[in-house]
Structure formats: structure tokens, C-alpha cells
Amino acid sequence: MKKIICGKLYDGISDKLQENMEILIDKKNIISVGKNIESLHDTEIIDLSHLTVAPGMIDAHVHAAFFDWREIDKDDIYYTNSMRTLAVAECARKTLAGGFTTIRHIGWFREDNSLDVKRAIEKGFIEGSRMVVAPHFLCTPGSHGDSTQKLGVNPMLSNFLEGQLPTMGSGADFFRNAVRKEVKHGTDFIKIMATGGFFTPNDSPEDKQLSDDELQAIIDTANSLHTTVTAHAYTSELITTLVKMGIHGIEHASMIDEETARLMEQYNVYLVPTFCPYDEIIMLDEEKLAQKPEAFQKKLKYYRQRLVKGRKTIINSKLKLGYGTDLVTGYNNYECGREYSAWLRNGVNPFRALKAATATNAEILGLKDVGTIQPGKLADISGWPRDLLTDHMALLDCGFVMKEGKVYNAVSYAD
Ligand SMILES: [Zn+2]
């Protein structure tokens, strides 16, 4: 048995930091939480009285398939599937060291064998965060999920490279089949590219990139197979359509209006708002903005007012918010604490952010055994030296990490 002595405790349930708390762990599970817990003489004492202890954090929007954001341009031609697989494993190792015991890998343009990495971690062959995985984006040619769009001036090459994207196609039947195959191969959920994006050069965040019959085919097929669907989506119009079709979640929603936010609340559709990728334009951080590709910067500048308004709508809403970083430029994919910094700097109550990164994310990911510190839950526990309530860099500076009762090396990614 192990007993953790907490400096302060955030348990993922109540909006407070509790003093003088202890956590008793037997093998993989928490068996008791409280003050002055009795334990056997051979219980290992883990003294974290210098840290704020919290559930292992969860990042619901990670693209794990690259080693360094400066390498992303190489993905089309110079990265092999095995290179991406190694990157996924390395990312999961680093996110765990950073105190994020679970990550949701939300697809990539090409094969990265992320389901294999997930299985290798589950079996204990390699160390890493627990992974919830959708290996591929479901998308159409030329869409935000089609990175060969930037090679469109060379149709022969871009068409040839399309063959690397197994879930890209057109037509309701294609997508019914794609959902069935993803489920067959073990996907945990389905990720679709419903609108265009900022990161891809030749489309617009306002583009609708899947037709109504394709969207309905995806959602109905996934529902019939008890699999959830989440959509990359920006515009209120399309989010409204998706909510009424029965979608489970939305990623980004960065230009959402009030009416659509109310609709999502009413239908209990979750939102992972991913503040990080748009933060530089909203907070006008010129230095970070300049690190993004030119087309990305141009689009962000063009849509700035709508992004500012959308963010206010999200922050002032009662939406069920998940926590996800979506880091593809400027910062590395394993720096999961970046999103906490963005939420706090944008004036979000820290307890709302902590709840999103723990209990709410566990619910979104369909994981019943993690997200809170309670008897019966898996012993996924993180510890933080900085003040979680006032220091926006706090979740980049991990001081302790335990996953399923086992202690791992903790690392700081604070600058
Ligand atoms: Zn993303």
C-alpha cells in the first residue's frame, strides 16, 4: 500500500483546495481519501506536502504524430508511418511526465499506428499516458483533413499522396464504410472535419466540407455501433446542423454565437474549445503569431473579431467544456499545460479549468475510473509545486505523477 500526504488537494469534485488530506492506495486503486487515515506499518509514505495534489490531468485534443512542430511540413513526404508511430509513443511518454495521465489522440492526416501505441502502453510494454484514440480524420478531398491540398498545384503528386489517407473520400456510403472499418480496427471514437480550417492553406474556416447526407451517415452509423462522434467545426450554422443530427461533441467552435451556444447546452453536447491555437491572435502576441505559417496568420487576422466574440460567448456560457490543447505550431504537442495558461489568462475561473481537465474530460472520453480522487477510482494522481489558482503556468510545471498506482518521473515544461 501507498499513502500520499497532500499539501493541498483538488479532488476533481468540489471547487476548493482541501488541507491536511491523505490518499491511501492499494495496487492500482485509491481505497481511501481523508484526514489522518490509518495505515499498516509497512505502508509506503509518499510525502507531497510541498505540492498541490490533483487527479492525473487529461488532455482531450492532442495530435501526437510528430516529434517537433517545426517538422510538420515534412509529414507529407519525408515521414514514414513508423516515424509517426515513434512520435506518438514519444509524445505519450512526455505527456505522462508532464502530469497528464490520459490523452485523447484526435487523429492525424496519415497512418501513425496510434492504436498500436495505445495497446503497447496498456500492456505495460512502453511507458506513456493512457490513450483514447481516433487514428484518422474522416474527411473529403481538399478539406482541412487533406494536407495534400497544399500540393494541389501538382495534381499528380497530390492525388498520389491522397492514397495515404485511408478515411478520406466522398459520399454517404464511403463514410458509412469508413466508420465501420474504424470501429472494426478498434477506434475509440470518430473525428470528422466538418468545416475548413486555419492551419491548412487553401480552405476557409467557413467552408462546409461534408454534405448533410455524409454527416448524417457518419453520425447514424457511429450511433448504431455505440461510438461517439466529435467534429472539427467553427461556424454556428454547421454546429446547429450537427447538434440536431445527434453529434456528441464539437472541437473549437471558435466563432460560435449565443443562440448556438444555448442549443449546445440544451442538447448537452460537449465542447473542447482549444484556446491555444487562436490565443496569439486574440491576445495579440505578435512574436508567437509570427511563428505560424503565413496563410495561418492571414486567416487568423481576417477572423480576429469573430474569434474574440466567439471566445467571450464560450467563456460566459454554461457549456460542458472539455480541456484540449491542439498544439501543432509554436509549442510542442506534449505541452498540455499550455491550455491552462490560455484559460487563466483569458479570465476563466481556475476551478472551471481544473474540472474540465479532470472530471469533465473523463466523462467526455467515456472513462469511468479516472478524473476524480475518490475511493474505487484508479490511482491516477498529479502533483504541482505552483499555485494552481493564481499561476497560469502551473500545469506546465509538474512535480509528481502516478498512473494506476505506479510513480513515474515528473518533468517541468515551464519556460
Ligand atoms: Zn486538432
Structural summary, described in words:
The protein is of the alpha/beta class. The chain has 2 domains: 2-55 and 371-408, Urease, subunit C, domain 1 (Roll); 57-364, TIM Barrel. The chain contains 13 helices and 15 strands. The strands form 2 sheets. Strands 1, 2, 3, 4, 5, 13, 14 and 15 form an 8-stranded mixed sheet that branches. Helix 1 (81-97) links the parallel strand 6 and strand 7 (100-108). Helix 4 (172-184) packs parallel to helix 5 (212-224) and helix 6 runs parallel beside helix 7. The chain is globular, with a radius of gyration of 21 Å. The two termini are 36 Å apart. The model has no long low-confidence stretch (mean pLDDT 96). Zinc ion binds next to loops.
Topology:
Elements: E1 2-9, E2 18-19, E3 22-26, E4 29-34, E5 44-55, E6 57-62, H1 81-97, E7 100-108, H2 114-122, E8 130-138, H3 155-162, H4 172-184, E9 190-193, H5 212-224, E10 229-233, H6 236-245, E11 249-252, H7 258-267, E12 270-272, H8 276-282, H9 286-289, H10 294-302, H11 304-316, H12 338-345, H13 350-364, E13 381-384, E14 400-403, E15 406-408
Parallel strand pairs: 1-5, 6-7, 7-8, 8-9, 9-10, 10-11, 11-12
Antiparallel strand pairs: 1-2, 1-3, 3-4, 5-13, 13-14, 14-15
Helix pairs in contact: 4-5, 6-7
This protein binds zinc ion (ZN).
